Amino acid sequence: MRPNEMKLYEEVMLLALRDEEGTTASGAWYQQAVAGALLAELLLEGHLRATGAGKKRTLEVTGTEATGDPLLDGVVDKIAAARRPATAQTWVGRIAGTRDLAHDAVTRLCETGVLRADEGRVLFLFKRRIYPEVNPEPERRLKQRLYEAVFEDAMDVDARTVLLISVANATGLLAANFDRKALKARRQQIDRVVNGDVMGAATKEAVEAVQAAIMVAAMIPAITATVT
How far, in Å, CA of 83 to CA of 65, rounded? Predict the structure, then answer.
């Protein structure tokens, strides 16, 4: 599987999973990242659009044409069936809380031999599903794409890479895959990429609709954990 054949949510999962252990990296809100990537993909491809202004800006389905991807189509169906329009922030929270979201997100990566579906144990007692990496090439190319956009002053970053950096930056996945000090030194370039200097109108629409939503949705479980 080549990088341009992967969906944004699949790229997010490659960044979220530890290569050998097949478990998700700590300190990253990967559920919110997957949810944001799903919405960003649908916005970018024109299956969703944002309407309204400010905090009342909501998402709506643009038509009935299927995406051909079961996970994306499931999100479209949920938004279409909702009783009332909801914001991107609300949908990130709802999708992130979907049961088996991460496992559904890696289905095709397992089918194509990028990952392997396996079973591990927690404290030698409890079983859990894990997804060790089998073919490292797609992730290597993915990280190279991100490296070039962040560390090499790229002036022409494609829309999908802009969206991925935006989602990964907002959810801690960039820090889980690259040196934190190096990323801090490149903060200006990251901001330039995700804030619109190198993106087109359609990409900017997707970023604006998703970025703040991810950050707020990720704060809620963190605040809850602190309080409890």
Answer: 20
In this prediction, residue 202 carries a pLDDT of 55
Q: How many CB atoms lie within 10 A of CB 60?
A: 14
Q: What is the mean pLDDT of the chain?
A: 82
Neighbour-count burial for 194-218, b at 16+ CB within 10 Å, e otherwise: beeebbeeebebbbbbbbbbbbbbb
Task: Tally the domains of the chain.
Answer: 1
Q: Say how many C-beta atoms besides its own lie within 10 A of residue 101's C-beta.
A: 18
User: CA 9, 10, 13 angle in degrees (round to 5)?
Assistant: 90
Q: Tell me how far apart the alpha carbons of residues 173 and 193 are, in angstroms, rounded to a whole number.
A: 16
The two three-digit tokens of residue 80, written as one number: 């279409």
CA–CA gap between residue 32 and residue 166 (Å, rounded): 12
Position of tokens 């279409």? 80
- Parallel, antiparallel or unpaired: strands 118-122 and 126-130: antiparallel
pLDDT, tens only, 167-186: 898 888 999 999 999 999 99
Does residue 155 carry a pLDDT above 80? no
- Which pair of structure tokens corresponds to residue 92? 């990130």
118 DSSP β-pair partners: 130
Q: What are the tokens at 140?
A: 């290597």
Higher pLDDT, 223 or 158: 158
pLDDT at 50: 85
- E strand residue ranges, 53-205: 58-61, 86-87, 118-122, 126-130
Q: What is the CATH number of the domain that holds 165?
A: 1.10.3630.10
